[in-house]
Amino acid sequence: MDADHVADDLESVLLTEDEIHTRVQGLAAEIGKDYAGREVVLVGVLGGAATFTVDLARALPSQVEIDWMAIRSYTTSKRASGSVRLLKDLDLDIADRDVVIAETVIQTGLTMSWLIANLRQRGPASIAVAALLRKPDTPELGVPTYIGFDVPAGLIVGYGLDYRGHYRNLRCAAVLAPHAVR
């Protein structure tokens, strides 16, 4: 879906489809260089990172296995509570393997920190994070991190990110207008 189809709902387009595509290619090149000669397990975080995970995997210059996790973070009064629930676990054994977690946006770092700690307990050879977007004031994660773009605060939709189940199929990344937040 193009931004034109939902223009009235958007405050601004942050990143065009071409800008995203170019940066995903760049992230894949960085990861490919750092993991040359090694097969990576790419762990996509459902559902927002499905688009990014697949695009990143297709851009990587070597073989990659893909697996998925689904987790839910809980918030109270619009703030992250730090409480996370695992909804879907990995099917692959990641012991002694190089793992790159693919996420579309890192907001507070709480969910990603939980995910890193959870995966560390499984004995991977290494863990890294690849995120297309990073919001302001996100703390260091303590693992190698590949970031596509630093973006401002605001409700971002598109390229897999949704608001109440809508806008995931928007090909760009955009800030949702306040009047569209119901």
Automatic annotation (TrEMBL):
Residues 18-141 form the Phosphoribosyltransferase domain. GO terms for molecular function: hypoxanthine phosphoribosyltransferase activity; magnesium ion binding; nucleotide binding. InterPro entries: HGPRT, Hxn_phspho_trans, PRTase-like, PRTase_dom. The keyword Metal-binding applies. It is found in: Cytoplasm. GO terms for cellular component: cytosol. One of its GO terms (biological process) is GMP salvage. Its cofactor is Mg(2+). It comes from the Bacteria. Its EC number is 2.4.2.8. Keywords: Cytoplasm, Glycosyltransferase, Magnesium, Metal-binding, Nucleotide-binding, Purine salvage, Transferase. Pathway: Purine metabolism; GMP biosynthesis via salvage pathway; GMP from guanine: step 1/1; Purine metabolism; IMP biosynthesis via salvage pathway; IMP from hypoxanthine: step 1/1. It catalyses: IMP + diphosphate = hypoxanthine + 5-phospho-alpha-D-ribose 1-diphosphate; GMP + diphosphate = guanine + 5-phospho-alpha-D-ribose 1-diphosphate. Belongs to the purine/pyrimidine phosphoribosyltransferase family. NCBIfam families: HGPRTase (TIGR01203). This is Hypoxanthine phosphoribosyltransferase. It comes from Actinoplanes auranticolor. The lineage of its organism: Bacteria, Bacillati, Actinomycetota, Actinomycetes, Micromonosporales.
